[in-house]
Amino acid sequence: MESIGTLNMVGLGLAAIGPGIGVGLIFAAFVTGVARQPEAEGKLRQIAILGFVLAEQFFIIGLALAFVLKSSNT
């Protein structure tokens, strides 16, 4: 069953690509928005942080799931 645990970790690595791209897009949009309307920086920062948290929660859930599946297969 060693190969299943290894495949879990490969899947986790591939799943990390999505939140990484998402966080990059969120902060790119934040920088663009602040450059266009500097007075809206406070509101845009709150929205960007919320988007960051939502994007990262999927990776954290995937990380927990990968370790749970790895431990249940051993």
Shape: elongated
Characterize the main sheet: none
Number of DSSP strands?
0
Name the poorly predicted regions.
none
Mean pLDDT over the residues: 85
Name of the top-level CATH class: Mainly Alpha
CATH architecture: Up-down Bundle
Backbone structural class: mainly alpha
Treating each run of at least 4 consecutive H or I residues as one helix, how many helices?
3
Question: Could you name the key traits of this structure?
Answer:
elongated, F1FO ATP Synthase, 74 residues, single chain, mainly alpha, 3 helices, 0% strand, 91% helix
Could you characterize the architecture of this molecule?
It comes from Aeromicrobium ginsengisoli. Keywords: ATP synthesis, Cell membrane, CF(0), Hydrogen ion transport, Ion transport, Lipid-binding, Membrane, Transmembrane, Transmembrane helix, Transport. It is a single chain. Helices cover 91% and strands 0% of the residues. It has 74 residues and is mainly alpha-helical. It has a single domain (2-73), classed as F1F0 ATP synthase subunit C (F1FO ATP Synthase), CATH 1.20.20. The N and C termini lie close together (7 Å). The mean pLDDT is 85.
